[in-house]
Amino acid sequence: MKIVVIGGTGLVGTKLVARLNAQGFDAIPASPRLGVNAITGEGLAAALGGASVVVDVSNSPNFEYLTALEYFERSTHNLLAAERVARVQHHVTLSVVGTGELWHSGDPTTTTAGYFRAKQTAEDIVAASGVPYSVVHATQFFEFIKSIADEQTVGETVRVPPVAFQPMAAADVASGVASVAGAEPANGVVEIGGPEVFRFEEAIRRVLTAASDPRKVLTDAAAGYYGIPVSERALVPKEGARLGETRLDDWLLATASASVGAG
Fold this sequence. Notes:
Blueprint: E1 2-6, H1 11-22, E2 26-30, H2 44-48, E3 53-56, H3 65-86, E4 90-96, H4 99-102, H5 113-128, E5 133-138, H6 145-151, E6 153-154, E7 157-160, E8 164-165, H7 170-181, E9 189-193, E10 198-199, H8 200-210, E11 216-219, E12 242-243, H9 248-262
Parallel strand pairs: 1-2, 1-3, 3-4, 4-5, 5-9, 7-11, 9-12
Antiparallel strand pairs: 6-7, 8-10
Helix pairs in contact: 1-7, 3-5, 6-8, 8-9
């Protein structure tokens, strides 16, 4: 079965293509670098020919509302139009746990609530398209925890909200998406997350400690998430979510070992 992965040369996309091929699918990466552009439509018809499934793990170039909205609207409309012509049987799109709450929680023009509003728009387009679909909501990636700490830093202190946090490895995201892509369309949302639930500050602290980063990590009820107020469980999946296998400490050890090996 041919599966086309839009965004197939990115962090999750490369892992997803490898995972699907290892499972016996004919997974094809697609991205502007490979001559397939979902924004302009360039190369879409040729790439989707004979495909049974299209998986969209592409992302907006930044979190700015209008940029993200234009990106997700245009790319999603173009993909679905090409899929109808190619008679694709299943559209899978990767989104974010908490999107439904996060886009309501801040000013879209001054906070990243706008990015989540754009993600919700893409989900709504997919759901209304008539193409059988699955939306995969994933929790935050381990790989981005350091950048979250940078975003939440004031002076020499990282301030985070007092909420639950359930991050996961990008490899486990790819595994979860691959499982959904190889199954029948859910025609709804499937949630995936990491195997451990932390307090937000604890996950940040472990990553910084592993990097010998001296910043202090404090819980601050006034701190948001990328500028957005969040509730206790906005960043964790609901009961019944599919959980990855990689624990944060194991990922940190593997990452450190890989860095030493590369050096």
